[in-house]
Amino acid sequence: AILAEASWPSAPPHDHRRRSSKVVGMAGEAEGERKLRFKAGVVQPSRQYPSNAVKTSKYTPLTFVPMNLWEQLHKFGNVYFLVISVIMYLGEATPLFVGTIKAFSTLGLLMMMMSITAAMALFDDIRRKNADEEINSSKSKVISKVSRDRRAEEKEKKWSQVSVGDIIVVGKDEEFPADVVPLYCSGDGGNCYVSTANLDGETNLKLKTAPTASQLLLSKCSAPIGDLDPQSKLFELNGEIRTEPPNSNIHDFSGSMQVEGFASESLGAKQLLMRGTVLRNTALCLGIVVYTGPDTRMVRNSRPAPLKQSNLEKITNVAMGIILVAQLLFALGTAMLHVKMTPQLKGHWYLYPSEILLPELFGWWLTFVTLYSNLMPISLYPTAEFCNAFQCYFIRNDKHMYYKRPDFNNGTGFGASARSSNLCQELGQVGFMFSDKTGTLTQNDMELKRLSIAGRRYGTFEGTGKSGGFNGGPDLQAARQGAGGKAIDAFLEALAVSHTVMATYGSDGKLCYEAESPDEYALVAAVAEQGWAFQGRRGNELTVQHMHPGSSSSQEIKYHVLASNAFNSARKRMSVVVQRGSEYLLLVKGADNVMMERAAAPDKKLEEDLKEFSVQGLRTLVIGCRSLTKMEVDAWKAKYDWAQRETEERDRKLEDVAEEIEKSLNILGATAIEDKLQDGVPETIEKIRFAGIKLWVLTGDKLETARNIGFSTKVLTQDMDLRIVDDEEGTLDLNEIESEWDHIWDPAQKAMMITGKALTAIMQDEDERAKLLSVSTSCSVLIACRVSPSQKAELVRFIREGIQPQPVTLAVGDGANDVPMIQEAQVGVGIAGREGRQAVNNSDFAIAQFRYLQRLMLVHGRWNYRRACKFTLFTFWRNMVQVLMIMYYTLMSGYSGTSLYEDWIRLSFNLLCTLPILAIGCMDEDVPASTALAHPELYSVGRLGKDLNKKKTAFTITAAIAHSLVLYFLTIPAFPGMELFGTGDYYTFGTTCYTCLLLDVNYRAGFITNTHNVYTIGSIVLSFALYIFWLIAYPQNPWLADKLAPNMYMVPEHMVASPYFWICVIAVPLFAMMIDVYISFNHHHFLPDVRDRVTYHGNKAGQQDAACPADLAGLVSENSDDEPSSVIRSESDSDGGVQYDPADTKQIDLSDFAQQRIWTHRIRHARPYLSVVYTGIMAGTVLLAMGLVALYYSESCDQIRVQYAESPERELDFMSGLWSHFPMGTRSYEKARANCSATIGGEQLCHASVLLKNGMRKPLLYYALGPFYQNYNSYMKSEVMAELTGKEVSQSQREKSCVLQTRVDSAGRQIVPCGMKATSVFNDTFEVVGYDLVFHDIAWKSDVQRYNNPPDYPSRPDTSWLYQRYPETIKKEEGVKTHAFADWMRPSAVPRVWNRYGYLNEHFGPGAVLELKIRSRYPMDTIPGGYKVIVLTEYGAFGARHSGFGYILISAGALCFLLAMIACATYRSCPQGLPWLQRLLGGEDSDEGYESDAKSEESP
User: Exposure string (b/e) for 355-375, b if CB count within 10 Å is 16 or more?
Assistant: First the structure.
């Protein structure tokens, strides 16, 4: 309950009583016997005890931040990203190593994620604090003073102020504020009734009794109640109370009370009124507070359920560990490449690699570890929490799991509850189910059906579910008048007296029974109809109305109850010692095995009757008695009283004393009670078995009863080979069973029954234990009978610890005895039955009826499992694609650690790419609920872990690599065209790639979605909308761009103006979709899973399965296949279900959203290959068209490429070689080489005559340098933007961004602007003889406008200005506002530079010859593979010549058509797939079982 309330804010605030509590003041103490002395009505505690104030809230204003931070740092992901942020900061702020990623980009996101979690925790804590204040401020009445004139003064106290020793006054329907020993109760004989619903959920009232001495003393007065009758005698009350130390046992209490003038008497469970219980049917109670705060039974029982980690979380943690190792290895590999390349980079004179303090390999390894840090998905934790919360919401509000009956839950409806949000997906992975029987499979609604008395049977049983009660009454009454009447009356008398039932009278004057056990209620009510009617109790006096047989006369018989030996699961019997007149009787009832062991003589006829009753599935009790002498009673009673007075081990001593007298019993007969099956149990069990879940039913019934119930519930079927492990009716030789089962390969045909006695013997032997594990896991059903609660939990643990891989276990029960089993299982489900709410309060999920397990597991569990796996794999996939793109780009940036994406753009990745998967993780449905219920075999996907395993992980990695390559090979070839459009700079190109990545991620989210609705589509639209908003608010905003990243200013505007941007954003998702559709077709066709067989393969031949809706065969719009949401069904005994107004319930939300009934598109095809064909035709056509257009415009632009410089050294590496002198599509006649003279004074004069074969219209001149690493990390960051915009900057700012060589020249002058970019400006000049070049509009206007010279330009002394360093290129009057400089300052995205130089406003006809004069000053000869080229080209709508992009698009389009044809041919040649391939590869349809430590389970 704690975990449920803490995880989602919709838990009701009044549930604070069931939360784990800390208490203001002293902690729960470890003490011995507690003594409270009272004199003249005043109690004087011997010591200080804890306060009674409860504090369930965790935080205070001072502790919230540190405590919550500490809690969140227990998550591996949070610690990881905090450490990464620290490492990033060290690389950013110190020279230890090079930090290429700013720490804020990770730390800011981490803080945002942790803030969301902290806000939810704070919200929950505020609710807890308010609930604490409400309960602590409740009022109670205490006796403040008792005067000698017998006047007692009352005053109100807050519950938080109540202390040990206070005498409190509690009236009818008031709640006890602490644990109290009653002194006086206004009921008959000092009795009172309390409701313990707040403690254990039981609705039956409990009888409590004040100690005899204090009750007698305080009731001896003549004043009326209104004048504080008992309080007036408190002055005369002197004595002492001794109690046991505080503990959590709500069913037992041990203590004693010594009142002056009276003998000491023991205190038991009936003398403890616990905090949280409510006084009922009693006017007044006075009591002494003995336990407060943490010492009360309620608080000590309010401990949280054990923390259960979901199987999916474990797998995810392992996956994160593997990803971390992969990240470290990737980083190591890249660092080694960097170290290898560093010596060669020394030839690049313009680069000044950063000097680091750490060893080079280790330092650069840290650089790349931080660069690839996003491989670990930071958003997975909040994504999982968000989706889990909504999955819980849908479970809680499912109207198909809402139950209401007039006789259930006080007429209030009960909806399903989800208390452990992290286990929602576990419901879809259950491999073993452990179920209680009574109250779980049955209604716990008992009816007496048959009796066996003195060798004769009474009543008949017509079959399970037939109502009518006991029909043997006439025969029984007739027999009472005959010779056997005495035996019958003795039997009925024992049933009427030996019980703990209470009798009350309703408002109509009718006698009503309140019983803790439904068995006792059924028996007492039944014998009342047969002439022995229990009337009630007054103290130790019990009254029975005896109706004489054959007459209307009756007689009241009074019994004095001398002792009562309580029932427990170990004794399996209860007895009373009573005095009737001068006779003393021991009346006993209990389980047949323990009663027969204590019988004076065997009764073969009764044993035969018991066996017949068990075969019919009835619960049996054997009744016995023994006459006692007064001497025997007195001797035994002395021992009993001694045991009652003991405060240590009282229960054991009482059991030992009871054992002495419960022997040599005269067996009177037996009862047979039917516990009716719940509605839908057989159908539910049948579906659970068809789902492949192994079902273990654990019950306390005898073997025959359990076997009969097994068949009636369809746990067992006639075609099963049933083996019994028992020393009486079966065999204990497990080897024999195993050998006989060797020829049965199907687990569904094998079943086993085992008794608790046999189980105990087997568990003590390790070899036998291992053999039991092997045999029991090879069958589909096991029924364990005569097992105790501890054995139930032991069996769950037996499976969890013995089988590898560990299966998901689910335990379902309804009573307190099922709590150990529920808490031991991975998933605990509580049934809200008649045995209270202990199981519900300690469970992970709660439902009202066993049949709701169908929907809880087969629908919600399966959906949630597939959703969770989907968002987990998707999150890993999308981060992997992003990091792979960054890693590819690292190879292009000189292994310098440059990220492909600008930091502030990259920062939005987790948010924008998480939004689409949130709706899918909450609402995706691969099949409708009706199909999931009609085809339970679909459940095997989760049970066998098919959606998140090694194969799926490998497939996800493969898909990530494929998508990253698609992104890479469709965007990189577009670079030349983007460069000539002025959008090939690092910032614009990176933003283009990021946009394509975002498109691909959102497309992929839509592709893996099974059901599209307004939320799934809206989340994708919202992702794009937020991205567009961010692009407008950040790069397009001059103020914000200047603050964050000035070079991003106006990037979106230029990006969208390029046609290559639009081609990329269309081509990337189209081609990726084609690849996905083709792979998906092959997966579903050759390795189909169960869902594929149900949806696709079942419709191939045109057949339409009645259980498989038609909407699975095409595109449909659906709302739901269920009834309208305005109708809820409640159960009725008279008919199957009646409708009632939804206003009857406030517990569930009936909106279409809560019921998952929103409008939905579900897309499926009867022939999946058609998806490949349609997609191939569509994508291929579009890609071919775009490729042909791009190629046409490329080929239509004539060009002349004149190489005028080349390094004598070889090319640096393969990546540099990609950026060759002449791009794809360059014709031989378009290549030329200039004639250059010797170098004089650092300048070389070159001439070239070029023939324009086809002529040119207004040609563009641009220069090409390569390889040139403008995208080298330190090169790009080597600038002071404030200096470029004309602002005053400090020397420290310059030193931080500019190395010494780029800050001070050889003459000691300050270089302005400083930095590698500003000191490596291209300064070659070009001249077309006879023509004037136009130099404007070659740079972004926004860059030229924002660059400014400083106010003292150019008069500042000792300064080296641009125009002085590059006089041929930079004009003095322009300085930094020169177009050529502004264009150069936008670094190229790839290791080559294609920058525009100028235009010719002339048209040249075919055959024209132009003379080029080149002054080569820019040094490239030291750069390995370096070259310089001047290009004269036409410039069209798609830029200039770069045919490679068109060829790539055409190839992609052709591949789409080829894949479509292959898919069509595959389907035509192999319409049923390749079954042998499925078997060879262990396809998704193989029903893999679990492997135990002893033996692997066979599977079909």
Answer: ebebeeeebbbbbbbbbbbbb
Structure tokens given for 1310: 């300050």
| Length of the chain counted residue by residue | 1500
Tokens encoding 1241: 């004074």
- Single out the residue of 18, 2, 16 nearest to residue 838, CA to CA: 18
Taking the C-alpha atoms of residue 389 and residue 970, their distance in angstroms, rounded to an integer, is 39
Contact between residue 698 and residue 729 where contact means Cβ atoms under 8 Å apart: no
Residue 1373, pLDDT score: 92
Q: Each residue of 617-630: pLDDT tens digit? A: 788 899 999 999 99
- Token readout for 290 is 């003995």
pLDDT of residue 382: 84
Other C-beta atoms lying within 10 Å of the C-beta of residue 1415:
15
What sign does the dihedral 1266-1272-1276-1278 (CA atoms) show? negative
pLDDT at 123 over 50: yes
Three-state secondary structure readout of 481-543: CCCCHHHHHHHHHHHHHCCCCEEEECCCCCEEEECCCHHHHHHHHHHHHCCEEEEEEECCEEE
Instruction: List active site positions.
Output: 436
How far from 281 is each of 180, 208, 504, 1162, CA to CA, in Å?
Answer: 18, 12, 9, 59
| Residue 1280 confidence (pLDDT) above 70 | yes
Q: What pLDDT does 960 receive?
A: 93
Average pLDDT for 879-898: 92
Report the distance separating Cα 286 and Cα 264, nearest Å.
20
High-pLDDT (> 70) share of the chain, %: 88
Q: What Cα–Cα distance (Å) separates residue 191 from each residue in 211, 539, 836?
A: 10, 7, 23
The pTM assigned to this predicted structure is 0.81
Kindly state the tokens that stand for 20. Answer: 């784990």
* pLDDT tier for residue 1163 given thresholds of 50, 70 and 90: low
d(CA 736, CA 646): 51
Q: What is the rounded distance in angstroms from the CA atom of residue 1412 to the CA atom of residue 1330?
A: 10
Tell me the DSSP string of 782-833. Answer: EEEES--HHHHHHHHHHHHHHEESPPEEEEEE-SGGGHHHHHHSSEEEEE--
What angle in degrees, to the nearest 10, is found between the helix axes of 630-645 and 650-661?
170
Q: Is the pLDDT of residue 239 over 50?
A: yes
CA 597 to centroid of chain Cα atoms? 51
Cβ partners under 8 Å of residue 722, min gap 6: 707, 716, 751, 752, 753
Residue-wise burial string across 1069-1102, b where 16 or more C-beta atoms lie within 10 A, e elsewhere: bbbbbbbbbbbebbbbbbbbbbbbbbbbbbbeee
**What is the DSSP-derived secondary structure letter of residue 1368?**
T
Find out whether 256 and 10 touch, Cβ atoms under 8 Å: no
Which region holds residue 189: left if phi is over 0, alpha if psi is between -120 and 50, else beta?
left
What is the C-alpha to C-alpha distance for residues 95 and 474, in angstroms, rounded to an integer?
Answer: 101
Determine whether 804 is exposed, middle or buried from the number of CB atoms within 10 Å of its CB (0-12, 13-18, 19+): exposed
Whether residue 1048 contacts residue 987, with contact meaning beta carbons closer than 8 Å, is answered with: yes
Q: What is the pLDDT of residues 1455-1481, one digit of tens each?
A: 999 999 999 898 888 877 666 666 655
Summarised one tens digit per residue, pLDDT across range 49-76 is 889 988 878 888 888 999 888 888 877 7
Beta-strand pair 1325-1328/1491-1492: unpaired
Element of type H or E holding 1462: helix 1443-1469
Top-confidence residue, 1491 or 1278:
1278
- Structure-token pair, residue 54: 């409860």
Identify whether the C-beta of residue 907 lies closer than 8 Å to the C-beta of residue 914: no
Say if residues 697 and 715 touch (Cβ distance below 8 Å).
Answer: yes
- The span from the CA of 311 to the CA of 325, in Å, is 21
pLDDT averaged over the chain? Answer: 84
User: If you search the block for the tokens 């219209």, which residue do you land on?
Assistant: 1257
